[in-house]
Amino acid sequence: MIKRQSFKESLDTVMKNYHNQTTTFPSTWLQKAGMICLTGMLCLACAPTTPPPTANQVTETNGATETNEPTAVETTPESSPPVQVAPATVPTNPPMNRPTTASNAVKDTCKITMAIVSDPNPPTNVRSTPEVRDGNIIGQVQNRTQLSVEGEQNNWFKVRTLGNEPLEGWVSKNVTESGCNQKTQRITIPSNSNSVTIRDRFIGTGSHEYTISAQQGQTITVTANSGPFPFIFAASDVNRQRELSNQGGAPGPISWSSQISTSGDYAIDLESNFRGYEYSFTVELR
Prior knowledge:
SH3 type barrels; 3 domains; 2 helices
């Protein structure tokens, strides 16, 4: 690039030579040539210096517009150690003293362990297999014979007769009288009443355990309508150490009442000796 001061000196020199020249060329051609030269120098001197393209300069290439933008460089942030956040403390309410419900405590159960022969066409056949088939009769028993029930299959009892010479085999359940010897049951009083009556029967030895839920402040009344008075135990007496009525086992009819001091399940139990019996009692809650 020609410096501006050098260009001026060159221009002065050209002009001086122009006026002092003694050539024989026509003056018109010389004037045109000088003007062309002068114009080219002026254009060169006055042309702005093109700066280098900036980062965002827009140029046109073959009719297409291009933008020289800086290339974005994707960087991965440095891994930070995980922040451990302490779990929020949730207040826990203390457990409430609520009466035990049927869903989490007492389930109704029934187990038959004894039966009495009651055949409309005695004597009753005792068979080696639980079916009616020729050749499988191994003995016979009379009505009112008590049988120890050891199993049940397809409406047949696997039994053993009692006595010095026991007989073991199968007897049709349909020709016997039987019931729950071991029984647990929850008592539920209907919503439209404040009392309920329970009736059942023991055949031979057994134990029936009833449970009823009562709230503190309520009054419970148990009345033995027939059979012995049941044994009653408080909700807190899980080992059956203290019978509340002091009348358990006494022959009815007997009635007993008490105010509930502790909410929970109260037990009403009946026991049977070998002979068995029928019973009925009523429970009232107010």
